[in-house]
Amino acid sequence: QVQLVESGGGLVQAGESLRLSCAASGRSFSPDAVSWFRQAPGKERERVATIRWSGTTTYYAASVKGRFTISRDNAKNTVYLQMNSLKPEDTAVYYCNTGTYRDGSYYSNTYWGQGTQVTVSS
Fold this sequence. Notes:
Helix content: under 10%
Strand content: over 45%
Shape: globular
Number of strands: 11
Distance between the termini: 40 Å
Largest sheet: 7 strands, mixed
Radius of gyration: 14 Å
Number of helices: 0
């Protein structure tokens, strides 16, 4: 069983930054990839960034490219999401998830964190 715990959310003003963390615990953690998703009220869950657990492959949604950076610390079983130049439209609950990333497509598995709220005021 793998547990994912997100942290780092909060209330910030537009233009400010936050760094989210996703810490994994449980049995040996070696996913193919880890993604950050977000879900705003009344909207579908959106994948914002993905990183392969080995190598350098990353993915960013167009809405965050150039502002968000995903990274990982394999020794700490932790994935980060550095969010800069935040906008009110970035307001959402942010979740991390493990899955498989192949040929540009991401396939979620069953492990999700509980989410962390990010609120950006204008």
